[in-house]
Amino acid sequence: xxxxxxxxxxxxxxxxxxxxxxxxxxxxxxxxxxxxxxxxxxxxxxxxxxxxxxxxxxxxxxxxxxxxxxxxxxxxxxxxxxxxxxxxxxxxxxxxxxxxxxxxxxxxxxxxxxxxxxxxxxxxxxxxxxxxxxxxxxxxxxxxxxxxxxxxxxxxxxxxxxxxxxxxxxxxxxxxxxxxxxxxxxxxxxxxxxxxxxxxxxxxxxxxxxxxxxxxxxxxxxxxxxxxxxxxxxxxxxxxxxxxxxxxxxxxxxxxxxxxxxxxxxxxxxxxxxxxxxxxxxxxxxxxxxxxxxxxxxxxxxxxxxxxxxxxxxxxxxxxxxxxxxxxxxxxxxxxxxxxxxxxxxxxxxxxxxxxxxxxxxxxxxxxxxxxxxxxxxxxxxxxxxxxxxxxxxxxxxxxxxxxxxxxxxxxxxxxxxxxxxxxxxxxxxxxxxxxxxxxxxxxxxxxxxxxxxxxxxxxxxxxxxxxxxxxxxxxxxxxxxxxxxxxxxxxxxxxxxxxxxxxxxxxxxxxxxxxxxxxxxxxxxxxxxxxxxxxxxxxxxxxxxxxxxxxxxxxxxxxxxxxxxxxxxxxxxxxxxxxxxxxxxxxxxxxxxxxxxxxxxxxxxxxxxxxxxxxxxxxxxxxxxxxxxxxxxxxxxxxxxxxxxxxxxxxxxxxxxxxxxxxxxxxxxxxxxxxxxxxxxxxxxxxxxxxxxxxxxxxxxxxxxxxxxxxxxxxxxxxxxxxxxxxxxxxxxxxxxxxxxxxxxxxxxxxxxxxxxxxxxxxxxxxxxxxxxxxxxxxxxxxxxxxxxxxxxxxxxxxxxxxxxxxxxxxxxxxxxxxxxxxxxxxxxxxxxxxxxxxxxxxxxxxxxxxxxxxxxxxxxxxxxxxxxxxxxxxxxxxxxxxxx
Length: 886
Fold this sequence. Notes:
By secondary structure, the protein is of the alpha/beta class. It contains 31 helices and 31 strands.
C-alpha cells in the first residue's frame, strides 16, 4: 500500500497519470524461498492466498480512488476478483477509468463475457511475452503452475465438484474466520523456524532502510576502530609473545590498516599445549548440556553483534557485505548445529580425544574458524585455534565472543601465526587431533607429520582435512540459458572465486554453447568489481598481492598457449587493492586444467552430446571430488550423471556455492578431503576417542557379500567370528538416504555410499574376519594383504569372491582406506608408508590383536562416503507444491 501511495503522490506532483498494473501473487513462491534462505524476520508476501486476495482488493480500492494520478490495470483471471473490482469502481464506468488485462491464451472464456457492448462493456488488454521458444518455455510453465494450483480460481472453476458458493465466497469473510486473525499459513515454515530443532540464523534485509541506516553507523564505527589480535592462552598472563606487531591491511585498499597482530612463536605454542593438556580436561568433564549451552549463547551473541562484525570481515577479508552476512550466519548455524548434536552425549559413552588443533583458512575467516572450534568444543576437546595468517583480527573477535559466552580460557586458546606455527602445533605429541581446511599440499604435509607418532590411545591421530576442488558444471541443451548464466556467474566469481566450492570448469553442450557464452560475456561486462563495502559491488579483491600475481601469471600463460581469454575491465578505483578482473578461458579438453586456480577464473569447455560420459570420466580423473553441478530439464540425465560422478556435493539446476549447515553437509573425497562432512551427522564422531555404534541413517538392506561372508564363516565352524560379523553387517549403512529439512522449492538428500576399496592388513583369523565384515558391510571392495592367512580365503562364496582381491605388493595398489591389526610399531610403520603415497590421503584404522579379542571394533562409518544432492525443484518455472497451498 505504501508503494501505491508513493506512486499516487508522484503522479500528482508531476501532473502525470501513471499506468499501474496490479498483479496478484506473481513469483510469490520465489519470495517465500528467498526469505527462508536469507533468514529474514518475516515474509515480504502473505502466506495465505485469502490474505493476498484481500490485499489485492484493498490496493484496487486505493487505485480506483485516485483517477487523477493513476490509470489502474487489473491483471486477473479470477471472475470473483473481476466482479469485486467492478463493484468497487461503481456502475458509472467511463472510458479510461480502468481496464482489465489477461495473458494471451488464458482467461479467454472469462473475458468473452466482459468485453463488448452486449456484454459487461469493460475493456481488456491482451498481453503476451515475445521471444523464442526456449526462452519463453519456463514462463509458460510458471503460468500453468500458477493457474493449475489447487487454490487457483482457474483450477477450481474447472472442477465440477467444487461448489459455486465457495467460488463466490467473500475473501474478507474468509480472512476474518481464521483464528487468530491474520495467522500465517501453518504449512509454510517461518524463516526463523526453517530447521525445526534449531533456529535458522538471522540474516540482514538490505532492502530495509532502517537496517541499512544502522548498518552504515556500525560500518563507520568499525572504520574508526583499530583492533589488535594477540595470543590468548589459558593463563592470560602467560600469553605474551616477544614478536613485534605486524599490520593487517585491507586487500581492497592496501593504504588502509585494519589493525595489528602479534604472532605467537613455537615456544608459546608449546606452552599453550601444556595448558590445554593440564587444564583442558576440566572442559572434557563438563556435562555435554553445559557445553552446548555455551555454544548456543555464543551463537546468540554473534547474531546480536552482526553489524559490528561485518565491517571487520569486509575490511580484513575483502568480502562483500552479502558475503560477510553469510559468514556470520554460517558461524551461527555451526554453533547451534553442533550444540544440538552434543545434547545426546553421555560422559561414560562419549569420550573426547584431547587437545585438538584447528587450522582454518582466510577465505572463510569466521564461518570455518568457528565451525571447527564449535565441533571440537561440542565433543569435549580443548581447542588450540590457529587462524589464517591473513585474517587474525576476525578470529580474535570470535574467540572473545566464545569466551564471553562461557567457554573457559583453558578450553579455547588463540594462536595467530604463519605456517611454521601450525607445523609446530601439529608435530607436538600432546596434539590428539587436527582439523584443517586449506590446500591439498599442506594437508599432505600435516598427514606426514602426524604419521611420525601415534595418539595417546595407541591409534593414528585423526586428521579431518577439507581441501580444494576442480569443480565442474555440466550444462545440456535442455537447460534454461538465463538460469545457467546467473548460476555460473555467482558460482565462479562470487567471493572473487576464492571458495573451495567455486566453479572452475563450465561444460556447455555445443548446440547451445555460443548463445550461453555470448550471454556470459555480456553479463561479465556488467559485473561490478570494486570496494566490497558498497552494496553495488559484485566482486571484491583477492586476499593478497601474491595471490593476484600468481593467478595473473596463470592467465597470461594460458593466453600464450593460444586459449581464448575474456576479461572484464577493472575500474580505476581498484588501483590501490589486490583486484583481478573476472576471467573466462575457453579450453579444448579437461586435461588443459593443470591445477586448481583459486580465484576468479572460469574455464569453459564445449562438448558433444555423445561425449557426456567421456566428459564425466575426465572430470573424475582429475582426482578431486568436492562439488559438481548439473543443469538440465531431463530427470533421466540427472540420475545418470549423479550415479557416475565422483563428488561429495551435487547441485542440480542451481549454483554450486553456499552449502547450508545441517541441510547440505559439505565436504568431498579424493584430493578434496578426508571427510567427514562439516555440518553433517558424522563430524563430531571423528572428534571422539570413544562413542556408541552408529545409528542407521535410514533403513537399508544388509550387503549381500557381507551376509555371504558370515555364512561362510559359520560353514567353516567359526561361529563366534560369524556372530561378531553379523552385528556389523546388520547395521546396513551403505545406501541409506535421508531428506534434510530446507527451504521451499529445494530438495536436499543426504546419503551414505561405499568409500571404494579398503586395504585389509590382518594378523589373525579373527582380525581377517572382522576386517572383512566391516569393509563389506559398508559395500566396499576389498584388497587383502595377508600372505599368512591366504588359506582362510580359499573357496569363498561367489558374492564375496567378486569383491575380494589378494595382493603382496600394496605399494602399487589403489585403495581408499586401510584396516590394520597388529602392534604399535607395525602400525606406525604402515602410517608412515601411507603418508608417503601419492594421491588422496589414506586413513589407517588400527587395532591390536588383544583389543580385537576383547571386543573392539573398527568404525564402519569411516569406510563410507557421504554425499549431498541439492535439487532446485522450482527450476521448471515454479514451486508446484507451494503453489498448491491455500
